[in-house]
Specification:
The model has no long low-confidence stretch (mean pLDDT 84). The chain has one domain: Up-down Bundle (Ferritin), CATH 1.20.1260.10. The protein has four helices and no strands. By secondary structure, it is mainly α. It starts with a helix and ends in a 5-residue tail after the last helix.
Length: 157
């Protein structure tokens, strides 16, 4: 096995774990809110992350002829491992929204790098995932600004 193949295998495994983690994070956040529009938006993010997970799993199986082993102890973004009680505290919500934005930004950068380092079908898939993560960044930034506006009482910028 070449070094590049090993790196790609590990990159796919990392990406799958990251998507699982992000999907769980958005589901927990959605369960903690009462506003229907916010609940819907967060559940959509969770579903999109699940779609990303399935795309990566499919690519992994296609490339390596095996199912990717999921390790429940892997933590990709520790900042997304929040306690349910934190969703009720405004200061914690600001931190959580900020962490979600940064997590989506890191995911976008990760897929951008993979799209440049791969070719063919994999490059196309990573490019699409990169663009989707950019969209997630916009959504999470909007939520951060909304929460910050609620705290400050006005829109700063």
């Amino acid at each position: 096995m070449t070094s590049k193949c090993f790196e790609m295998k590990e990159a796919l495994r990392y990406g799958i774990h990251a998507e699982i983690e992000a999907g769980q994070f958005y589901r927990v956040w959605a369960e903690s809110v009462s506003e229907p529009h916010l609940k819907t938006e967060l559940m959509e993010l969770s579903e999109w992350e699940s779609e990303h997970e399935e795309s990566l799993k499919s690519m992994y199986e296609k490339m390596y002829g095996e199912t990717c082993a999921i390790d429940p102890t892997v933590v990709v973004s520790p900042e997304l491992k929040v306690q349910t009680k934190d969703f009720g505290d405004v200061t914690s919500l600001l931190r959580i929204a900020s962490a979600a934005y940064l997590s989506e930004m890191r995911a976008m950068e990760f897929y951008e790098k993979l799209s440049k380092e791969s070719d063919g079908e994999a490059a196309v898939m990573f490019g699409k995932l990169m663009e989707m993560e950019k969209g997630h960044m916009d959504i999470t930034k909007k939520q951060y600004l909304r929460i910050r506006e609620d705290v400050a009482g006005f829109r700063a910028f």
